Amino acid sequence: MSEARIIPLHADGDGHTPWHPNGQSNGGSRAAADTEPELGPDSEAAEPVPSPWEEAVTETLAFLRRRFAGDYAVDDFGFDADLTDNLLLPALRPLYQRWFRVETIGMKNVPDVGGALVVANHSGTLPLDALMTAVALHDDHPAQRHLRMLGADLMFRLPVAGTLARKQGSTLACMPDAERLMSAGELVGVWPEGFKGIGKPFRDRYKLQRFGRGGFVSAALRTGVPIVPCSIVGAEEIYPKIGDLKPLARLFGAPYFPVTPLFPLLGPLGLVPLPSKWYIEFGEPIRTDTIGATEADDPMTVFNLTDQVRETIQHTLYRLLSQRRNAFLG
Amino acid sequence: MAPSVVLVTGVSRFLGGHLAARLAANPAIERVLGVDTVPPPRDLLRRMGRAEFVRADIRNPLISKVISYASVDTVVHASLSANPGSAGGRTAMKEMNVIGTMQLLAACQKAPSVRRMVLKSTTAVYGSSSRDPAIFDESMTPKDLPSGGYAKDAAEIEGYLRGFARRRPDVSVTVLRFSNFIGPRIDTVFTRYFALPVVPTVLGYDARVQLLHEEDALAVLERAASEEVPGVFNVAADGVLLLSQAIRRAGRIPIPVPSSAVGPVSRVFRSARLVDFSPEQMRLLNFGRVVDNGRLRRQFGFTPRWTTMQAFDDYVRGRALRPVIPPAQVESLEQRMLAAARALR
Fold this sequence. Notes:
The complex is a heterodimer. Chain A has 14 helices and nine strands.
């Protein structure tokens, strides 16, 4: 398909005459064959059908003009859909498609409309797993949903990252924000392990840590949205954390300062994540509207539900791992 | 139930003065008294019509006599100042805000005629930090109490007012927490800030800005003064703008300043008398602040007519802010580039 897109562009650039034989010999794919008779005569006419390349240029210029004029809408949380769709997601896409070759499973378990809470395991030293889940839910979900992630306050204190996180749709992991987003019908993502999960040593990989205090469950109960357990395999291997330089972490005010086989050793080059093969599986949604909002204040219900979600994710992780032969080849 | 005698503080400034003018235009109200330490500018005074101006300092016990002699039944305390510059320095501002309010409340407590109290407060009482929820409602309290400045004044004043409400349960108390005002006529730190040709921002931060159109602010104050709607209300327009977006909409050029240099830069702007930003307003530029106006809509029964974006655009139009780079030029550049792209193929 990607080749079929390139063919008309080259043909256009070359001029008008040699394009018939070129298109046929190179492509032979349906798309090229379809556009060929249309584009051929039109390129001589006054109003040519815009090529995909030209459309991309037009779109990019329109995007730049919108950005320059401030002509876009931002929601109350600071989510900038225009920037996310046209700049942030395209920037992450190569990483998603080519580097990690993410495969999604069970996308039908994520509802097309209405609020839902995606609960996932956290790993990988840097929160790339959260970003990849956001790309997955936008690119591989039929409704192209935007994932509104709940992040730690540390992230929002950081200068550039905090701002980008807000523009990308994240907000602080706190009860009022979570409930507000879910009752507004947004798809909310939460990584309840927090820093315990993302910063765990490599030897503890794929062992779920404690799931916070179950705040995410009570938020879902109060708003009655389903909980979708999400298991991410592959993120543990991107930066295998084999050590932790505590004094440096304290110096920077970070929760940990990771040592990976490459990181401080190769300097900035060590920041390149290892190209592991990823699987993101969305499990059966757990309904909370049948339980009732009043149960949100019952610690027993909350703990049981938290455990249920945690167990589901852990079992899915084990199953996916047993099917995987190699961390990098899948 | 319309009030018969209204006392408005801070009439020499935009909100107080125009509120007095609006109330004076209401024939159901018998008398409107405007109090301030300095007389209002002449055009504002003319606009105020039959409203009477009383030159008095609310820090002075004399205010008690004004209230009792005129048998004031509604007090609108709109004189809270956020600008240390215009108030004559930070100490004078604090004195005017906090001590003035204490005196005014003491006078009101002694006056049996007072039935209604309206306070113009600010959403700054919620603070602004990275650990706060994205949207504040009236029941929330700040994570870090404002350490100083206007926000601390407002928080203290609200505290005194709660004490007053306990001691005088017969008085209906309305606290209006306004977000930052914007509009073609009002003069605030924000309107001056966006009028600068190059606008300093904090590097790496992009605050969410929620504004309120001056006309909406006046309408809310007028309604609170003339009807009985007790409670605490966030008063802010719908929607937000990002600071960078607002600057672009105004056609200004943002100059990101590293956090460490923000202090010195803001001092330069203060001494040049361009913009007088207080430290908590600088923090606002980092993280921004958005409040929920649901209670204003449902309980108070007021829906702001301008969204944040519309209010800001109205300000840009009303001030006739010329974009540094005109949008027409940008558009023609886009057209030229498109034409070039077409010619290339």
